[in-house]
Specification:
This protein is of the alpha+beta class. It contains seven helices and eight strands; from the N terminus they run E-H-H-E-E-H-H-E-E-H-E-E-H-H-E. Helix 5 runs antiparallel to helix 7. The protein is globular.
């Protein structure tokens, strides 16, 4: 499988009164999305704090679209197309970021959306995506293990942004995070005991029916989310 040229993430923040409209678009936008030129893979996503990975975390005012493109021109054309334009009509904020895959392993909906890039060093901000489909009979043990890891994540040095992401309220769990550097991401992933303990439990207890881990070079971003560009200057 050839590597994607570009991976993009759109995040939209909406007002409380626009939540029903956002819910409608999460369903109605699936069909036109599939007809988008140059689009290899896409997931419309709900977001949340990711602190427990239950419905308590969900943020109904924030929604996302993760997309994988074969052609670097295609996402530029898409940004001015019908789907993002429709969201901009009622969203209070939009944040868009462009990424390049650095490493990826595992499956998402039976696919390898980011290909199999040869892992390499990148000097600059990096993003990470995790996604898992839970074995439902083991989900309760997973949910009890999440809070200490999430609390530690939000205190980790070098973290710029962290979100829970998911295609459904339960069973399909994921995270999106942005870090100052690969070294700060590695320090959290492999050097902090709450996370390494959960990695070991995952291997022992088989929580996931499907899982994916990927990291990306952050190439550009525009706009804001919650009043901030996570890649912009200033305190985070």
């Amino acid at each position: 499988m050839t590597l994607p040229a570009v991976v993009t993430l759109h995040l939209w923040q909406v007002s409380t009164h626009a939540i029903p409209r956002a819910l409608v678009h999460m369903v109605a936008d699936r069909r036109p999305l599939r007809r988008t030129p140059g689009l290899r893979f896409a997931k419309l996503l709900g977001t949340g704090s990711g602190r427990t990975f239950t419905v308590r975390d969900a943020d109904p005012r924030q929604w996302g679209l993760l997309a994988v493109w074969d052609d670097p021109i295609a996402p530029m054309a898409f940004q001015d197309s019908g789907l993002p334009a429709r969201w901009r009509r009622f969203a209070d904020e939009e944040w868009v970021a462009h990424f390049e895959p650095l490493s990826a392993r595992g499956l998402w909906s039976g696919q390898e959306p980011f290909g199999k890039p040869r892992p390499r060093v990148f000097e600059g901000p990096v993003a990470a995506v995790t996604r898992a489909r839970l074995v439902l009979r083991r989900a309760a043990r997973f949910w009890t293990a999440v809070p200490p890891v999430s609390a530690d994540l939000h205190e980790a040095p070098g973290l710029r942004m962290a979100l829970g992401i998911g295609e459904a309220p339960l069973g399909l769990q994921g995270t999106f995070s942005i870090w100052d550097s690969s070294s700060s991401l590695n320090a959290f992933a492999y050097g902090r005991s709450p996370h390494t303990a959960v990695i070991e439990r995952t291997r022992q207890e088989g929580w996931y029916a499907e899982e994916l881990f990927a990291r990306f070079a952050v190439r550009s971003s525009s706009g804001t989310i919650a009043g901030v560009d996570p890649l912009g200057p200033g305190p985070r």
